[in-house]
Amino acid sequence: MSQDIPILLYHSVSDQPPADFKPWAVGPEMFEEHLDMLVELGYEGLTIGQLTELTLAGRPVPERAVVVTFDDGFSDFASNAWPLMKARGVPTTLYVTAGLVGGSSEWLEPVGAAGLPILGAVEIGALSDDGVEIGAHSMTHPQLDIVGRGRAWREICDSKKALEAIVGLRVETFAYPHGYHDRATKKMVADAGFKSAAAVRNALSHAGDDRFALARYTVMADCTAEHLAGVLDGRHARRAPRRERLRTGVWREVRRFRARTGS
């Protein structure tokens, strides 16, 4: 049996998030405890790109590998997250909502958090130069599996081009907004030239995982270092199944129906 590979998903590191966004914002002190736990337990950090290269080459993944990712590209990543990670030698992949660079979290208006600032181009370039792997997270953060194929393709392709223009490097990994994807969107991501894509699934990845729907575990504000240690060793998180569960496909069809009918 191949090993489990925990890929952690964070959104924000902040102690002053909007009220309705608090569940997704880990406090700086808590985040520091998470990082110290990773170091103390001997976990070896990888970026998504490094993990993908190892699996594509058929090379072994370090026994205690962990991948830390951030979605959206909030400004607090540069001020509150990356300095703590850099100080401990923990690498990361940052998925940026490319069409909102220098703007704010417009997609969060329904939950009252539309004003969260997004990193600017200069900041993203500096983070890339400092060793942060930059990945694409679409242009405007829509649910790609229900917006129509034409728009989905533009959201995927344009985000890659926009971020490559900022960092001056190839952007080779993508993360599905909200985690939503289907067979068609996965093919678009591959056709656009990405080597991997991150989903959510709240499970542990592994060597046999779909590299265009990598399983990640969402770290919420109330996740203690002790609980996270249990996620990493499999006590509090299951291994992602190789095939999509039937209920996931059913739920996707329900969402498509609602999107078409407005119900």
From TrEMBL:
Keywords: Signal
PROSITE patterns per record: NODB
Domain of life: Bacteria
InterPro entries: Glyco_hydro/deAcase_b/a-brl, NODB_dom, Polysacch_Deacetylase
Domain NodB homology: 64-263
Locations listed in the record: Secreted
Coiled coil: none
PANTHER family membership: POLY-BETA-1,6-N-ACETYL-D-GLUCOSAMINE N-DEACETYLASE (PTHR34216:SF3), PTHR34216
Protein name: Peptidoglycan/xylan/chitin deacetylase (PgdA/CDA1 family)
